[in-house]
Amino acid sequence: MRLGLVIDLDVCVGCHACAIACKEWNASGTIGPLSDYQPYGAEPSGVWFNRIRHYEMDEYPNNKTVNFPMSCMHCEDADCVTVCPTGASYKRPEDGIVLIDQDKCMGCNYCSWACPYGARELDRSSGTMKKCTLCVDRIYDQDLPVEERQPSCVLTCPAHARMFGDFDDPDSAVSRTVRERSGFGLMPELNYNPTNRYLPPRSKPVIPVEPKSKGGLKESIKQFANKLVRR
Amino acid sequence: MHPAFSVIFFTVASGAGFGLFSLLFIADVFKLGGGFSREQLIIGGLMAMGLVVFGLLSSTFHLANPKNAWRAFTRFRTSWLSREGVFAMVFMPLALIYLASIWFDAPLWLRETFGFLTAVLAWITVFSTGMIYACLKTIRQWNTPLVPANYLALGYASGSLLLLLGAVVAELDTTPYIAMSALIISIAAVLKAIYYFWIRSPGLTPTINTATGLTRAKVKLLDTGHTHGTFLTQEFGFQVARQRASLLKIVVFVLGFALPGVMMVWVFDQQGQQMAAIVAVMAGLAGAAVERWLFFAEARHVVNLYHGAQRC
């Protein structure tokens, strides 16, 4: 199994609900808390597993805003795991989820240097590195109804811009969608082989808007004459 | 990259320590300038080991959770950081056996075998320190073989200056020590110059387009999505102005390479020997520290592409 997310950049409205749902679930999850520093102060900051950036593509008048949620890509060739000196960082062979053993981490930051996607953040209160767990404490929970055994961010997305599934299965919903919509991974040139895929914004059909003619007596006579003459 | 002072101090001090120990072995084998006495070799060796231990201890100050530091020896097979720790730990007993065989007048083959092994371990350890940075594909300025080369050259350069000071204090013939130091410092300067030249060109790197996958048009960041800084901006957001970097590069060359060179001429001319050697050591170490600071400050992590950079 190779579990991961598909994020539809065409649909994402940039509401940050996935980030909030992620924080809510994981703050009390297996590797919580996700500490906040000065949450109500002048310089609010803290640990998040999921961050949404907003980009502008192309230039006016062809520009388009693209909302860009990012969390751990659960890479196939995850350098964050190989560089870890303590063995705290590991990739599960059974489902490909990259996790950090909080009891082994010494907080050297080295794995965050190796990650190109900024998926890892140090929690100052525990002194350990933290990252997206793909809600590992949720997706296998037998006490939850089957349809709720999905990462928090996927469940909460009001626009259904996020999908969760197994990329090793060519007939899974995620694999099919990625095939049909030409999903891509980020920074392929670094060869980390990220699992998560992004669906590109669709090219919208251009609706032609012709300027309405000015009118005037001469113009309307011309149009009237044009209608009379059979060509 | 944010330059952490504990890491700068660690790499400079342990580099000098490993360099000093290996060169001390060479000085002992060939009895350079008449050769150090038994006591002098022991003192020099212990000083080198002190620098290494001091450096290793200071490196733990940048850990957020140092109680797990002992676990850093466990991932020897994949992690250069782990390898560095393991090699440094293997170095210690070998170095002690070498010093003990000097102290107890052990047979020459034993003394030189262990001296050689220690020198090789020192080389491997400094190489591993360089590879910690060089193996990161996320930072173009580090992901080059010149990085371990620079770490080794600068480590041996500072070590050779310390050894020269030792030779001056021990009142040996300084000529071979000056020749060795001059050669190593020239190599270090040339390698550093190549490195600075190399990182000036942008090269083939990820851009904001490949980072977002939106490769068919210009892309620019509208909003980072966070109110104040994050761990990522604190760790990777540090930037040094180009003009300041150029100035510091001049400082590196003047302080780290030129001044020790001038001081060596002074030592060679037999005027104010000890003071000149001390100045050479101080300048060399200060130059190496500035070089190390700049090494971090000039590194641009690709995560900056998600914070507004167009390319890294």
Give an account of the 3D structure.
The complex is a heterodimer of chains A (231) and B (312). Chain A is α+β, with helices and mostly antiparallel strands. Chain A has one domain (3-199): Alpha-Beta Plaits (2-Layer Sandwich). Chain A is 22% helix and 19% strand. Chain A has seven helices and eleven strands. In chain A, the strands form five sheets. In chain A, strands 10-1-11 form a three-stranded mixed sheet. A two-stranded antiparallel ribbon of chain A has the order 2-3. The longest helix of chain A has 12 residues, at 217-228. The radius of gyration of chain A is 24 Å and the shape is elongated. The model of chain A has no long low-confidence stretch (mean pLDDT 93). Chain B is built from ten helices and one strand, in the order H-H-H-H-H-H-H-E-H-H-H. In chain B, helix 1 (5-29) crosses helix 5, helix 1 (5-29) packs across helix 10 (273-297) and helix 3 packs antiparallel against helix 4 (108-134). Chain B is globular, with a radius of gyration of 22 Å. With 312 residues, chain B is mainly alpha-helical. Chain B has a single domain, classed as Formate dehydrogenase/DMSO reductase fold (Up-down Bundle), CATH 1.20.1630. Chain B starts with a helix and ends in a 15-residue tail after the last helix. At the A-B interface, strand 4, strand 5, helix 2 and helix 3 of A face helix 3, helix 7, strand 1 and helix 8 of B.
Search tags:
A: 231 residues; alpha+beta; Alpha-Beta Plaits; three-stranded mixed sheet; two-stranded antiparallel ribbon; 11 strands; B: 312 residues; mainly alpha; Formate dehydrogenase/DMSO reductase fold
Short note summarizing the structure:
The complex is a heterodimer of chains A (231) and B (312). Helix content of chain A is 22%, strand content 19%.
